[in-house]
Every structure is written in structure tokens, then in C-alpha cells.
Amino acid sequence: MSLAxxxxxxxxxxxxxxxRVYIEYLRKEPxxxxxxxxxxxxxxxxxxxxxxxxxxxLALPDMNGLDILKHVHAQQLPAAVVVITAxxxxxxxxxxxxxxxxxxxxxxxxxxxxxxxxRNALERQRLTRIVETLKDDFGxxxxxxxxxxxxxxxxxYRIVDSxxxxxATIFITGESGTGKEVCAQAIHQRxxxxxxxxxxxxxxxxxxxxxxSEIFGHTKGAFTGAVSERIGAAxxxxxxxxxxxxxxxMNLDLQSKLLRFIQMGSFVKVGGTVTERVDARIICASxxxxxxxxxxxxxxxxxxxxxxxxxxxxxxxxxxDDDVLGIARHFLAVFAKEEGKRFQGFAPEVDAVLRSYxxxxxxxxxxxxxxxxxxxxxxxxxxRDMLPPPLNHIDAGPRGGGNAVAASLGGSSPGGGRRGGxxxxxxxxxxxxxxxxxxxxxxxxxxxIRLCDGNIxxxxxxxGISASTIYRKRMSWESEPKRSEPKP
Length: 488
Hints:
Layout: E1 7-12, H1 16-25, E2 31-36, H2 39-48, E3 53-57, H3 65-74, E4 80-85, H4 90-98, E5 103-106, H5 111-134, E6 142-143, E7 146-147, H6 151-163, E8 170-173, H7 180-190, E9 198-202, H8 208-216, E10 217-218, E11 230-231, H9 233-236, E12 241-245, H10 252-264, E13 266-268, E14 275-277, E15 281-286, H11 290-295, H12 301-307, E16 310-313, H13 323-339, E17 345-346, H14 348-356, H15 362-376, E18 381-382, H16 401-408, H17 437-451, H18 456-463, H19 467-478
Parallel strand pairs: 1-2, 1-3, 3-4, 4-5, 8-15, 8-16, 9-12, 12-15, 17-18
Antiparallel strand pairs: 6-7, 10-11, 13-14
């Protein structure tokens, strides 16, 4: 690892012997550690160079460590702070967490605990910087028809921002229902062509023998049924944007003509002899992998490289963290207004189902589900019994959530309880063997991290969630140290 890849860590500890122990714990890690013994030296060191992380003892000889934390927070310094405290000062550690610290370590702690905590703090800090870089001043919760603030969508917004002003062709890929046309319209709206036409053609919805006429137009009498001259999509999109959706469905003969049009900016109508020139920005999209279509001989290689100048891949809804809830609330409000219904939100168990469902049809499927609920029901809150198939068969949320999570991980119910049959009843009236959903989820995530040797991105991939989801959940667990544990 090069020196440029090493991260700076400021250790603020007044006991020299302990500082030496902590430095030895971190000896094999890629950190440049600076040790200071009091608050004044810590502030001076931070003033000279802001470290990536700060290991901060609260009991300093000249000031309270919380004052240093407040300074870091007030100045919005990009440093992850891990507080070190004694057993009798846990209340101060909780206060530090509320003041912006990432985590706290209670003395004495092991080398492994220190290494893992610092790694996680630095990784979370890195992801936070990425998110902040991708977001604009308004947080980017909504963006030209898109709804969602997840990290994958922030990356999409950033590419659209950068590519919109260019004349380069853009190739949008993504599963059906991810919003490829919404993305194309966003590019058009962000470009200098926003006041000119946006013309969309679905190559999969038009018969192949009519596709050339749809794009380039035809003259009167060019073929049977051509009773008048027709202006094609290319001419209508002059000075604007031509969007070719599902372009991999276009036949090979027409692909060669499209390639010439893109290269030369000119075309001839079907049955015509006059060459016409237009200035249209080309955006295309497909729910197939275009390179695989090239390898299969169904898509011209030269056209692929001509179109695939700026690729944009839209993430499926299942990879967008909690965006599903924001999108669901948006469409619930829209459809309720359209249908004159009273809906205002979702019951907690419905939120859990929406989060846990795989959404193979993505945003389009979510829209259909919400439309179904609003049309067939009327209430202020969407309850579980209103969910249409297949969501009504999903066991998630407060009722039986623990067993659902365990089943998804390939095991029996937590605590060793058996599904089905009679269940023992605990003293508090709850079913024995059933545990709170957050507890089971926490154990599953922490076990995955342990099996991956602390590699959170790898654990996230194996769990089928994003790394940012793990960091967010761990932060919520660790910021509530007094959260009640499930009863045995």
C-alpha cells in the first residue's frame, strides 16, 4: 500500500502506557498515528491537519474530551470520532454519541475490538463522503421524475448531470420497470435542448416492417397503405432528443440505416430520394445486455460502440435501500388524490413487507400494487389485509418477523422454536422462541460481518443488501445502548 493510501489517526490519550498499547494494537493497520496527551495539543494537531479518525479519551488533564468532539462537530470536520471511556463514564459516552461520535470503547478493550471499530468508523466516513459528494444542496430526494436518495441513485443523478450538456449518445440499461424513459427525459430536461421536442419510439411495440417508416417517415405511395406523406420521429426530434427504447429489438437491416443516420445526421424517407438532415440527440435503452446481444449476432457491433458512448445502468428497486418507501408514499398520495380516497400512510407491518419484497417488476410493479390498493380500499392507513398477491403472503414485520428473517437465512426460527404445531407460552404471554425482528436482523448482520472477517461490503453482498444499509442499521443500534433486549 502506498503512502497516499494510508489514513491519518489522531490518538488523544494522556496515559502514555495505554497509548503505547493502542499503537501496538494498530501496528499492522494502514494508519499513520499521531499521539497527543492533552486537549490543547489535540486541537493544535487538528488545526494543522484534519485526521481521518480521532481516538478520543474523554478524561483529559486540561479539558473534557467532549469539548474536542463539539469542536469537530461545530467545524463540520471530516473526521470519524471514536470515544474512549472508563466503565463509570458510559453516560458521557452516550452523550458523545449524540454529539456526533461514531462509537465508543469502554476500557479495557481488546486489540480486535479496537481494530474492527476503527475500520468500520473509517469505512462509514468514506461512504459518507461519497454520498455528500453525490448529493446537491437539496439532498436529491427527487430528481426530474425520479424519487429516491439511495447511493445508487445519487450516482445515476451525477452521471445525468455530467452527460446532459454533451452531444454524445447515451445507452441506458436496466431491468424492466426501473425508469429508463424517465432517465431519458431527465437527460433531455437537464440539457440545452429542454425547450425542443422529446420524441420517444418503443422498438418492441412497433411491427418490424413499419419501424423504418416510424423513425424516418415515408412518401405518399411508398408502400400499400401509404396514402399520404409521413414525417418520421427523426425529423420531429430535430434540435431535440430522439429516444429509442428497447433498441435491441430492432432488426439488423434497420440497424445499418440507423448507424448511418447517427454518423451522418442524415436520412432518406421510405420511398423517397431526397436526403434530409436533422440535429437530434440520440438516447437509447434496453432491458437486455447489449454486449450479449452483439455476441449472439442480434445487434451490430459497430452500432453498439457508436451508441454505447455514455452508459447509464439503472439499479433495480431491491438494491435501492429504503427508496421503496419514499416511492410508495409518493404514489399513494397521487393515486389517493386521483381516486378521491383518504389514504395518508402505511401501517408498520406494511412498511416491513414493502422493504422485504424482491420487486421483480421494479417501480412499475410498485405503482400497480399501490393503484390496486387505492382502487379497492378506502382508509387513512394501508393495512396488511389490503395487500394484493404476492405481497399478502410475505411474512415480515412485527408479526412473525423474526421467523421470516431466519427462514430467509436458511435456518430455523431464532431461539430454537419450531414452526407449526403448538408453541410454548412464556411467562409474559408471548410465544416462546419468537424474538424481536430487529434483534434477529442484528444477529444475522453481525454474524455475516464476523464470517467475512470484518469486511462489511463483502458481508452486504452475501446478505443481498447494500453496505450503506449495514452502516445505517449499525449506527441506529449503537446510538441506543439502553435499548431493551427481548426477554428469553
